[in-house]
Design brief:
- The longest helix is centred in the C-terminal third of the chain and has 19 residues, at 176-194.
- The protein has six helices and eleven strands.
- The protein has helices at residues 22-31, 34-41, 52-56, 155-165, 176-194, 197-202, and strands spanning 13-16, 46-50, 60-63, 71-74, 81-84, 90-97, 106-113, 116-119, 125-126, 135-138, 143-146.
- The termini are far apart.
- The strands form three sheets. It has a five-stranded mixed beta sheet. A four-stranded mixed beta sheet has the order 4-3-5-8, covered by helices on one side.
- The protein is globular and about 55 Å long.
């Protein structure tokens, strides 16, 4: 994470993550100078927006029903897309299949977002089969946006992403899921050795 806008220039990949309050975080980017710097870097440095970060990449985010904080905000303007925060929160975990840039890949992930985004262009490449709204790439501007969480837990997707940043091959020997499961096993072994687990479970 960066706190100073001047740090962005050193990055080879900038990730705008999800948000609990998209409009408030978008206002922060505008007020602190991040928007101007991102626009300077656009086309030279890859920028990835995930979930709320994806929504911020568009032209506007509107919250007419006060689902978060209410109001409307101008987006970063990188994608021809508008978002309205309305309806029920989308919550789904499933397998996804890639296309175009992610052609041939299949990975597990999940969606947990509020709002509907409308993309008003046929020139953007969809990166998820059967649903163009879940992710797009603009190779010229070096912009990627997706509603899918957890896709970087896939070593195949991560390699494909890092290949955009550097021609050097990246060796990812373990998936995030394998690493997480191994650490959970180590934690369980630790608790069994040093704690009275049966007593804890009874209480």
């Amino acid at each position: 994470f960066v706190k100073n806008v001047n740090e962005l220039g050193n990055a080879e990949l900038i990730i705008i993550p999800g948000s609990k309050n998209t409009l408030a975080d978008l206002a922060f980017l505008h007020e602190k100078g991040f928007t101007a710097e991102l626009k300077n870097l656009c086309g030279n440095t890859w920028i990835l927006g995930i979930c709320g970060g994806f929504q911020m990449l568009g032209e506007s985010v509107d919250d007419p029903h006060d689902m978060e904080a209410g109001g409307q905000g101008s987006g970063l303007g990188f994608l021809p897309m508008t978002t309205v925060l309305e309806g029920d929160k989308q919550l789904e975990k499933r397998e996804y299949q890639g296309q175009n840039w992610l052609e041939g890949l299949c990975w597990s992930g999940y969606e947990i977002h509020l709002g509907r985004s409308e993309i008003r262009s046929n020139e953007l490449e969809s990166i998820v089969k059967n649903d163009a709204s879940l992710g797009v790439i603009d190779r010229k501007q070096k912009i990627i946006g997706t509603y899918i969480h957890g896709w970087l837990e896939s070593p195949e997707v991560t390699r494909r992403l890092l290949a955009l940043v550097s021609p050097e091959p990246f060796d990812i020997p373990f998936s995030f899921q394998q690493t997480k499961e191994r650490e959970m096993e180590e934690l369980a072994d630790f608790l069994e050795e040093y704690c009275d687990v049966e007593s804890i479970l009874r209480n």
